[in-house]
Amino acid sequence: MQLPGLIVKKVGMTRMVDGEGRMIPVTLVQADDQKITKILTPERDGYHGFQVGFYAKPEFRLKKPDIHRLRKVKIEDNYSRFREFRLEGAPDGVELGTALKVEGFSEIPSVDVTGLTKGRGFQGTTKRYNTHVGRRTHGSRYQRRGGSLGQCTTPGRVYKNKRMPGHMGVTNTTVQNLKILEVDHESNVIALKGSIPGHNDGYLVIRPSVKMKSK
């Protein structure tokens, strides 16, 4: 079954050597224990799809509603997080309690990866938006400052979306068209070409590319 998406955990980066002897940067992601916990239908939910439960915890740390809905569908795993995947039509061969593995991405050449970027704290405009720096000469006070914020009396305010210092990172970001170099069925690991958002051990969502590049 080709999956519409999979929850993976970022393991870290390494490198591989291609057939021409070139070093390729590679990110390894691993599919942790996850199962289908709910089948979504248009009559009840408004669309086709299914819900996936992951990130198991001890039962005493779960919320009572989560324990109830897991035991209601006869799932004994203590999942604390859930994610929905929409489908175009009714799911074929999908049943409650089905474990999702990396085999569903064996025939997919590239994927889109969605996750939270690393937090960088409070940063200025140069680091946050890669703006130009000022002249590094005597008397210059605008080496790394944001510069003018706008006009004077008219309009008498700062425009919305003005690039200014502020909190950087921890934003939901999608990287598209990452090539799958290898799928390890035994370790449940996928090797992706290039870098992906987030820190090691962070959870991400991978989906088949919507803008798949032609070979």
Please give a handful of descriptors for the protein shown.
single chain, 215 residues, mainly beta, Elongation Factor Tu (Ef-tu), domain 3, 2 domains, six-stranded antiparallel β-barrel, three-stranded antiparallel β-sheet, 11 strands
Explain this structure to me?
There is one protein chain. The protein has two helices and eleven strands. The mean pLDDT is about 90. It folds into two domains: about 5-120 and about 175-210, Elongation Factor Tu (Ef-tu), domain 3; about 120-170, no CATH class. Helices cover about 5% and strands about 40% of the residues. The radius of gyration is 23 Å and the shape is globular. A six-stranded antiparallel barrel has the order 1-2-10-9-6-11. A three-stranded antiparallel β-sheet has the order 3-4-5, covered by helices on one side. By secondary structure, the chain is mainly beta.
Helix and strand topology:
Blueprint: E1 6-17, E2 23-30, E3 34-40, E4 48-56, H1 64-72, E5 79-87, E6 110-116, E7 121-123, H2 125-129, E8 166-168, E9 172-184, E10 189-193, E11 203-208
Antiparallel strand pairs: 1-2, 1-11, 2-10, 3-4, 4-5, 6-9, 6-11, 7-8, 9-10
